[in-house]
Amino acid sequence: MITFRFDSTSCIAVGTFNMYVIQPGWLVDRGILPKISQMMLGTNLDEPGFHFSVPGEQTRWAVTPHRVEVSSKHEDDDCGKLVANVVRSLPWTPLKAVGCNFNYTATADEMRTLRPFLNFPTTPPHGYKAEEHQAMFSMRRDNRLYSVKLSILPDGGELLANAQEDINQRGGEQAAKMADSFFEHRERLEQIIRETLNVDLSYAG
Questions:
Q1: Where does the pLDDT of residue 125 fall: very low under 50, low under 70, confident under 90, or very high at 90 and above?
Q2: Using alpha carbons only, what angle is made at residue 90 by residues 31 and 25, rounded to the nearest 5 degrees?
Q3: How many other C-beta atoms lie within 10 A of the C-beta of residue 194?
Q4: Measured between alpha carbons, how far is 28 from 11 in angstroms, rounded to an integer?
Q5: Is the pLDDT of residue 119 over 60?
Q6: Distance between CA atoms of residues 185 and 128, nearest Å
Q7: Are the C-beta atoms of 13 and 86 separated by less than 8 Å?
Q8: Predicted structure pTM score
Q9: Which residue among 51, 110, 150, 181 has the highest number of C-beta atoms inside a 10 angstrom radius?
C-alpha cells in the first residue's frame, strides 16, 4: 500500500479584509498571538498584502485584501483556531468562504504502483513529454464540500485535500465554526482518501 506523508496544512478565510487592521500588533492585542519580540515580515510582489512568521513558531501568516491565511509545516498546529479567532474579532467583515487544506506527498517509486490503478497513460504520444497527471473528486456533506486532488509529477506525487464551506454573509460565527472544526475536517478527509484511493497517510517525519 502506498503511503502519502504529511507535508503542510493551512486554513484560509476568503472575504473583504482591511490589511491595515489585521496587523501583528492587532493580533497580539486580541490575544490571538502571544506577545511578539521579533518576527520575519515580507510583502507580496504579485498582489497587495504581507506575510509574516515568528522565529521558533511553525505557523506562517498571509494577509491580503481578499484573504487571511495561516499555514504550517507541522501537523499539530491548529491553523483553523487562529483563523476562527480572527473572524470572530471582525463581526462586520463580509465573508465568502472558509477552507481547510491538508497536503501530502509520495515518492516517484511509490507513484509508479498507483498509476495503473488510475488508468493514466504511462507514455505520452511522440513528441510530447509527460508533465503531470491529475485526478480529482468532490463530495458534499451537509453544506460543506470535501475535495481531493491527486497529482502525479515526474519526481513524485501530491495529494491535496480540502474542506470548504461557502459563507456569503457578514459576521464571523459561521465561518469561525468551520475553522474551529479544522482537525475534524482532516479526519473526514483522511477517511475519504483511505476508502476511495486505498492508500495510507503518515505523519512520521
A1: confident
A2: 40
A3: 13
A4: 19
A5: no
A6: 39
A7: yes
A8: 0.89
A9: 150
In three state form, how does the secondary structure of the chain look? CCEEEEEEEEEEEEECCCCCCCCHHHHHHCCCCCCCCCCEEEECCCCCCEEEECCCCCCEEEEECCEEEEEECCCCCCHHHHHHHHHHCCCCCEEEEEEEEEEEEEEHHHHHHHHHHHCCCCCCCCCCCCCCEEEEEEEEECCEEEEEEEEEECCEEEEEEEEEEEEEEECCHHHHHHHHCHHHHHHHHHHHHHHHHCCEEECCC
Burial of 10 (0-12, 13-18, 19+ CB in 10 A): buried
pLDDT at residue 205 greater than cutoff 60: no
Q: Side chain identity at 31, as an amino acid letter?
A: G
Largest pairwise CA distance in the chain: 61
User: What pLDDT band is residue 74 in, cutting at 50, 70 and 90?
Assistant: very high
Higher pLDDT residue, 143 or 127? 143
CB 132 within 8 A of CB 149: no
Q: How far is CA 53 from the centre of its chain?
A: 17
Handedness of CA 23, 29, 35, 37 (dihedral sign): positive
